Amino acid sequence: MIKAKNRLGIVFFPAFDWAISPTHPEREERLLYTQDQIFEEGIEDIEGVKFYNPIIAEEKDINRVHFVVPDVKSVVTQSHLISAGGAIKALQAVMEKEVDKAFALVRPPGHHAQRVVYGDRGFCIINVEAVMLERIRQEYGNLRVAIVDTDCHHGDGTQDIYWNDKDTLFISLHQDGRTLYPGTGFIEEFGGPAAYGYNINIPLPPGTGEEGFLYVLDNVVIPILEEYKPDIIINSAGQDNHYTDPLTNMNFTAQGYAKLNERLNPDVAVLEGGYSIEGALPYVNLGIILAMAGIDYSRVREPDYDEEKLKQPKDITEYIKKLSEIVYNRWKNKDDLRLKEFKDVNYVKRPRRVYYDTDGILETQVQNFKICNKCSGVNTIESKSDRGYHIFAITIPRDACPNCIDEGYKLYKNASSHYTNVYLQDRVNDEYYSK
Amino acid sequence: MIIGLDMGGTNIDGVIVEKGKIIKTIKKPTNRENLFNSIWTALKELLSGYDNTKIERINLSTTVSTNAIVENKLSPVGMIIQPGPGLPYDFLACGDENVFISGYIDHRGEIIKDFNLFEIENAIKLFKEKNIKAYAVVTKFSIRNPSIEIKIKEILENEIPNSFVTMGHTISGKLNFPRRVYTSYLNSAVHSIFNEFLNNIKKSLEKEGINAPVFILKADGGTMNISTAEKKPVETILSGPAASLMGINAMLPTNEDAILLDIGGTTTDIFFLADGVPLFEPWGIRIGKYKTLIRAIYSVSIGLGGDSSICVRNGRIKIGPQREGVPYAFGGPKPTPTDAMITLELIDENAFRLTHDNVKKAYEAMTLLGRELNLSAKDMAKLILSTMGDIIKNKVDELLHEINSRPVYTVKELLYGKKIKPKLINIIGGPSKVLAPVLEEKFNLPCYYPKNYSVANAIGAALARPTTEITMFVDTSKKTLSVPELGLYEKISGNYTLDKAKEKALELVKKSALSLGASIEEIEAEIVEESSFNMVRGFYTIGKNMRIKAQVKPGLIQ
Ligand SMILES: [Zn+2]
Ligand SMILES: [Zn+2]
């Protein structure tokens, strides 16, 4: 039998009894053929590969990351808690050194879930990776972490959650927001005042193939990671860049995903999107599993794979080269750029409109970041939804100084009574309040 | 009357059961050089004085296939394997000649690329050159579409007369290509030796004028008739532990979650019951280096028994896993748990015909060992029994943890799925009476043991019934229904329902049990797994994908 070079933990939880709706892409059938492929290949029998069941995330795990309106119980289902719990279990296995790496093949996905949650957007309610990471930080102390999002859609939820946290470098490779949901993820979205430059977007043109993805990886992502030196690398492993995906326009392949994973070498990968359930997922997931386990994946191929057809056009290659240079230079110059951007200000406001496509909710919000020279600064969100909620939410960040902690509690205490809900996230003491 | 024979590594046990009562038992040594002779001698002795024509059936658990594999007395096998894209495949080369062919079938059973006839012709040339007569043909995803395996088998049989070919899809309906390859290999490799044994049995029975049907025990605790065993001899491997388990269940029936222990001289076998039903291996049993798809009762053997050798290392006692001879009391080289039991006067002196000298030597063993730990002989003996209890408890806890964390795939199962929580322990074997109170205390569970444990395995063999399992796969968009184990692949209508499929599955599994020799009144068929998925492509539901598992579970002849 085959032996894995790296001990790999797999949480495979297809949630065969859960769907957003019967014909929704996020439905029971989504991982059925992936399971067939994993079973038929005998992955469970590979020495060094271990399968785990998810644990169930707790309410507190959600409150650590999100302000769920009105509360966790009314919005978040067991399926979401299990999906996040699956990711937590995967990273726990790595942290406990039971395995070298782990892959959480869970659903529903999470990377479109932002700090404030009124409902489902982009098939996501809670941010699976963020819930996982903050639970692990709670259990194992502060870690320097890089999240590399290789889903075809911009990871706008993860970007929002780690916007002002320079201990969490977020890099998203995705199809250009001008051509695809959620319409964000431009180079200029570069992070909050305490973490400017630690939110990196690489919007790729439709039609990007193996060559383009691997070029960006080798010339932007890996050099940045080498400089950032994270303790942990998390891969938000969405699989909708595949050439057969029904929702997107990219030309990536199972081989490409495997190569990308091998070079990125993440400690944990978490499945995100990917809706070509028959033609892509079985092969992409197999490729990722083999790459993570350090097993030869060169024989993994889609049935309709055609190298010639999938070759990346020259103009796209040129565009990506230029784009990579710009992104990398911005990273290099992030300190200068920060000084320019936040000159002589004490607060930075970030007004946004957020549309919950899956649930049809429209939210308007203003985030307000205090610039503190001792910590990342207490920050707040004032948000209204078209469902009648008007909320005020305060975050005391993990590294908050005593002043910012006091200020956070004062803001909570003195919050105006015209808000329908007020929330306080005290990340220093891991305490969460709402009224 | 029913005859049960269990051929073990050391002994052959036999019983005659009539109207639910054991009317005769025998125990004869196994001659590993001539298994047929051993069993025949045992059977003749068992039947002497009884009317051959009254025999209703003969149930036989044999080690013929197991020994052939373990001792590597296998026929050379030519393998034709179609690995398709995916994992590297060189590790699948288990045959004496292995030909990997091109082409492949995908997970839905679509032939993406057909096989190349030229490659098969070359394989045949090679097999002929090497004078290989047994073959196995296995393709990836063959259970979703067996046509390539079937075509290649036909070619082989046409070109090489008197050949035996195992096709992967007939082995099991489970998805697991490497195991399908190994199991198919083993089936072809033991075919000749097992059939020689069966032919001898058939001939001898004929000579004695015995017409009763013969059933062979399988590793899942059930039986199959001879004509099935001829084609699937690999199913007979490791039926011994299954016989023991069925024996314990016959003597100590329960409907609870339970721990079952068979404590022998060298090893302790551990089994579990869930609501009284034996637990199975999730994929199939492992034999030697081969992981197979053979349905089998979950059993774990640890090196701990009445004759395990004991030593003290770094102030701690170590029991087993080796047995280095008979107990010290009987002139063996090392102290053993049996010596501890003798010292504590827990062994019936008459039954074991203990001499004064035996007792003295046991006491001496405990004294010597106790000296290293500053314990009296009696305290040492007590510590040994307590340690045995601890070893068993720790192992059982570890296994239960593993079993209760087996992967599940639905929210419902994860939240409310069955967890095994044993309510009692049933033990058989020499030391059971002595260890029962120890285990009762360690586990805080009631412990039961039968009086007549020594032929439990033969009783288990005697009372086992035919068992079978089928896997049904329905794809209403392709309008196909398949049951690989039965070689059934048929067209259905696009509006086929899950209820219809379940009904059909039950009907088929009953039919399958009948073909294994079951009588209609003893068949208890059940659906064990069912799922139905909407297949949506684009914005349209194009059909349903159903998966059903039905079985006739192991049970006892009433
Ligand atoms: Zn996506
Ligand atoms: Zn501060």
Automatic annotation (TrEMBL), chain A:
This is Acetoin utilization deacetylase AcuC-like enzyme. Pfam families: Hist_deacetyl. Belongs to the histone deacetylase family. One of its GO terms (biological process) is epigenetic regulation of gene expression. Residues 77-278 form the Histone deacetylase domain. GO terms for molecular function: histone deacetylase activity. InterPro entries: HDACs, His_deacetylse_dom, His_deacetylse_dom_sf, Ureohydrolase_dom_sf.
TrEMBL record, chain B:
Pfam families: Hydant_A_N, Hydantoinase_A. One of its GO terms (cellular component) is cytosol. One of its GO terms (molecular function) is 5-oxoprolinase (ATP-hydrolyzing) activity. Residues 180-469 form the Hydantoinase A/oxoprolinase domain. Residues 3-159 form the Hydantoinase/oxoprolinase N-terminal domain. It comes from the Bacteria. GO terms for biological process: glutathione metabolic process. Gene3D superfamilies: 3.30.420.40. InterPro entries: ATPase_NBD, Hydant_A_N, Hydantoinase_A, Oxoprolinase-like. This is Hydantoinase/oxoprolinase-like protein. It comes from Caldanaerobacter subterraneus.
